Amino acid sequence: MAYSDKLMDHYENPRNVGSFEKGDDSVGTGMVGAPACGDVMKLQIKVNADGVIEDAKFKTYGCGSAIASSSLVTEWVKGKSLDEAMAIKNTAIAEELALPPVKIHCSILAEDAIKAAVSDYKQKHGK
Amino acid sequence: MTTEFSQDFFQLFGLSRRFALDSQQLEQSWRAAAAAVHPDRYASSPDAEKRMALMQATHVNEAYQTLKSPLRRGRYLLSLQGVDTQEETNTSMPLDFLMAQMEWRESIEEARDSSDVDALEALSSRLRSDKRALEAELGNALDSTADLDAAAVMVRKLRFLEKLDQEIGDAIETLLG
Predict the structure, then answer these.
(1) Distance between CA atoms of A111 and A115, rounded to whole angstroms?
(2) For the domain that residue B64 is a member of, what is the CATH number?
(3) Which of A71, A97, B66, B151 could pair covalently with A14 via S-S, beta carbons 3.0-4.6 A apart?
(4) Which of A38, A108, A113 sits opposite B160 (nearest CB)?
């Protein structure tokens, strides 16, 4: 199977790997998992006082496509508002990385992870 | 013997439709059913009968493979009751379960990176006992409390454990190979 250069780049040099400090109120954490392949993804967003995502980090156990998808979305969400982040669609991720059809679920996982992180942040802040 | 395609896999082997299962009885019923429809018995039969026997043999084997595996048996029981386990689409698992999954993966990675086969073996035996506990829980949800939503979550959890099992096995194989 031929993978795109963008996918290989994110896989070989994943951006924003890691975690934020525990107990930071400005951080929202999303955790999701794909039963079919056992992939687990943790995605965190750090939101500033203006409601803009200023930083993001991820940790993913899974295949190259899952790692690349999460790496890509951590780049995408930076500078976005929560609503803008919520609007990110898995199809855009799949298209950007040229994911093969059998790996589309990796992009769904990444979309669900952002949504979960935003919900977690909103819940923390009573929104 | 004729195999009725309309029968469910439990009926096919004369078993009651529940998760708890006598594996010896399953084994015996399967052997008897498989022997009855074995293609060799139809070597001199007309083509139509041969084809029929082959279809039945395939059906019998699929039934056996489905019932033998606790994960597949659980999924099958749910599907008989119209519940889709959503293993391809549902990504929201209980948070503590996902955290534990992360820890499992970290432990496996650590053991693999330090070529620690003993640690991997220990993880493997811990995983087996976790799996048995989850299977018992699934049996309870299906046979006793009939909590089908909870059972579907457990089937999804079992999928994750199966993947861990495979990861540990691969790691051990790589280190020993």
Answers:
(1) 6
(2) 1.10.287.110
(3) A71
(4) A38
